[in-house]
Design a protein that fits this description.
Outer membrane efflux proteins (OEP), about 475 residues, alpha+beta, single chain
Length: about 475
């Protein structure tokens, strides 16, 4: 019982002697709600960012691409290697809290010959071996604080990997959505080209029959060229986007498989944002900044511990023997143990400079943490208003496309009946083609805004 009480008292004393401030999360200014939140979305603690990425992106082809990227992407491999390095650093720093025991052996042999009278000969051989012990008593918490900092660095590295995970998932999704939008634009261009080529043939037949003039033929040819010139640009962008996706997947540039069409990629009409305070726990970049702050705070204590004496416990056990001039000695044994104390007296301000540096880095880490939180709130607010306005723009564009389709159909009927000239058909065809392409871009922008909001809310890193 006495031994247990003594050990407990020793632990309490050592813990009480840990110098430096204990970590406390700094206060940050958080709004009660996000600016731009959709009032029709349900209020509460639930958030769009809490959902796993495979429940957001329903396209099985896209899911396969994301899983391939998670398995092969080089940024993730680099992040995993950094985590292994950080874990090793924790073990390395923590080892300073434990004794170091080393084995040692030596067998010195010495021979001395004299060449002047009286002739002398000295021959000695003293083999010996033993164990040395050295242990620094971490009375002031120098190594405990250093270990605390190393563990925080490890946690920050793990959170940094989650940042890469979230970025990778949303980057693959965004690139795939852009690819499907380009596919849709190419389809629109090809269908428009085929329709206009058919119209050109009809106009040419009417011109040959003397019904219309060559001016109508030239105008019809203008529509054909206007559609055909868009096709090479779409094909270029499609191939470049495929190359980008291939690199995200950790592969050489190659064709990318397709799945569901663009408008059906994501279906989530109401987007709950949750509360701003939840970002402190959900967004990995905020958690990275906080762990960096924890590490900086712990290093203040490690720096302050340099002001205090360092106490070492040194010991050794050795056995050996010897032969000198043919006479044997031993076996012999030796044992020694004792404390060693070092006290800082003069170091030209080095220790104080170390403390000042640690304090300054902690202040910097606090400011960076608050800045990261503020930036996260802004990104969510931007994402909310961006998604809502993109949604409104897409709806308006759908209305415009339907109006132009009706107008184009009517102008063609009027032209066939000889009521109007081909200029009216030309103008409506051009507007319809441009509006259909704009609609594909509006659908793309709406989905990209949703993906960006998902990332801003801290989603995408769950595996």
């Amino acid at each position: 019982m006495r031994r247990r009480a003594l050990l407990g008292l020793t632990g309490v004393l050592l813990a009480a002697c840990t110098v430096g401030p204990d970590y406390k999360r700094p206060e940050v200014s958080l709004p009660p709600d996000y600016r731009g939140r959709d009032l029709s979305a349900p209020a509460g603690t639930g958030s769009f960012g809490d959902l796993a990425w495979w429940t957001i992106f329903r396209d099985e082809t896209l899911q396969g691409l994301i899983r391939t990227a998670l398995a092969q992407n080089y940024d993730l491999q680099i992040a995993a290697a950094r985590i292994l390095d950080a874990r090793a650093q924790v073990v390395s720093v923590r080892s300073n809290q434990f004794p170091v025991i080393e084995g040692a052996a030596q067998a010195p042999y010495q021979r001395t010959d004299g060449d002047r009278p009286p002739l002398t000969l000295e021959d000695s051989f003293f083999p010996q071996g033993g164990v040395n012990l050295s242990f620094e008593l971490d009375f002031w918490g120098r190594w405990r604080r250093a270990t605390e900092a190393a563990r925080a660095d490890l946690a920050a590295t793990e959170e940094a990997r989650r940042v890469i995970l979230s970025t990778l998932v949303t980057d693959v999704a965004s690139a795939y959505i852009q690819l499907r939008a380009l596919d849709l634009g190419l389809d629109i261009a090809l269908q428009t080209l085929a329709s206009r080529q058919n119209s050109l043939r009809l106009v040419q037949l009417r011109q040959e029959g003397g019904v219309v003039s060559m001016a109508d033929v030239y105008q019809a040819q203008t529509l054909v060229v206007g559609a055909s010139r868009e096709i090479p640009d779409f094909e270029r962008q499609i191939e470049q986007t495929e190359n980008f996706i291939s690199v995200l997947l950790g592969q050489n540039p190659a064709p990318v498989p397709r799945g569901a069409p663009l408008p059906t990629q994501v279906e989530l009409p109401i987007v709950p944002a949750g509360m701003p305070a939840e970002l402190l726990e959900r967004r990995p970049d905020v958690r990275v900044a906080e762990q960096q702050l924890v590490a900086a705070n712990a290093r203040i204590g490690a720096a302050k511990a340099e002001f205090f004496p360092r106490i070492f416990l040194l010991g050794s056990i050795a056995v050996g023997g010897g032969i000198q001039n043919g006479v044997s000695f031993g076996p012999m044994a030796a044992f020694g143990i004792g404390p060693t104390l070092t006290v800082p007296i003069f170091n030209a301000g080095r220790v104080q400079a170390g403390v000042d540096s640690a304090d300054a880095r902690a202040v910097e880490a606090v400011a960076r943490y608050r800045q990261t939180v503020q930036q996260a709130i802004r990104e969510v607010s931007d994402g909310l208003v961006g998604y809502r306005k993109r949604q409104e723009a897409r709806r308006e564009q759908e209305t415009l496309v339907q109006v132009l389709r009706d107008a184009t159909k009517l102008s063609n009927l009027r032209y066939d009946g000889g009521v109007t000239s081909y200029l009216e058909v030309l103008d409506n065809e051009r507007q319809l083609f441009t509006s259909e392409l704009d609609l594909s871009r509006a659908q793309r922008d709406e989905l990209l805004a949703l993906v960006g909001l998902y990332r801003a809310l801290g989603g995408g890193w769950a595996q």
